[in-house]
Amino acid sequence: MTEAETGPEAAPETVALSLPPLLLSLAADLVRAIDDGVRERGFDDVRPAHGFAFARLAPDGASVGELAEHLGVTKQAASQLVEELVRKGYVERRPHPGDARARLVVLTERGWACTRAADRAAAEAVRPWAAVLGEERLRGLRDDLARLAPSGRLRPIW
To answer: Boundaries of each HTH marR-type domain copy (predicted)?
Structure first.
């Protein structure tokens, strides 16, 4: 797009049409940067889908059904993901405190270490944005995004 199509004089509908590809591209770049950073920190056996699961499991854990809903997958698919993460040592199953029939899936110390690595990678990925936008505009962007996405729900769209 040209400056006339995206600059301050752009028509509202042109601005609206330009936002989705820009946001999706930025989100893809961010996920890739976080994934790279997690791998560089020694967690090379996880993929971004695991990170979305970790976001739901922290801090209090979740049942397989809750995890399935969060990820937008079947309970069977969520159960398979949990089995994989158990084998890799990232999560464990415990008795569910509120449902004797269910099991609570929680992060292990390895899962928490991976989560902290992802947090550090995310901070590193976003740091250059401040150089481009400036600290004040970056805070404004954060505030605007918080208003537009009030749930703050981290969930992949498959």
So the answer is: 20-150
Each residue of 116-158: pLDDT tens digit? Answer: 999 999 999 999 999 999 999 999 999 998 898 866 666 655 4
Q: Which residues of 105-134 are buried (b: 16+ CB within 10 A; e: fewer)?
A: bbbeeebbebbebbeebbeebeeebeeeee
Per-position DSSP letters for 59-106, written without gaps between them: TT-B-HHHHHHHHTS-HHHHHHHHHHHHHTTSEEEEE-TT-TTSEEEE
54: three-class secondary structure by DSSP: helix
* Domain locations along the chain: 24-148
Spatial separation of the C-alpha atoms in residues 144 and 128, rounded to whole Å = 19
pLDDT tens digit string along 55-104? Answer: 999 889 999 999 999 888 999 999 999 999 999 999 999 998 888 888 99
Correct CATH for 24-148 of 3.40.50.11260, 2.40.50.100, 3.40.190.10, 1.10.10.10: 1.10.10.10
* pTM score, whole prediction: 0.82
Give dist(CA 113, CA 90) in Å, integer: 9
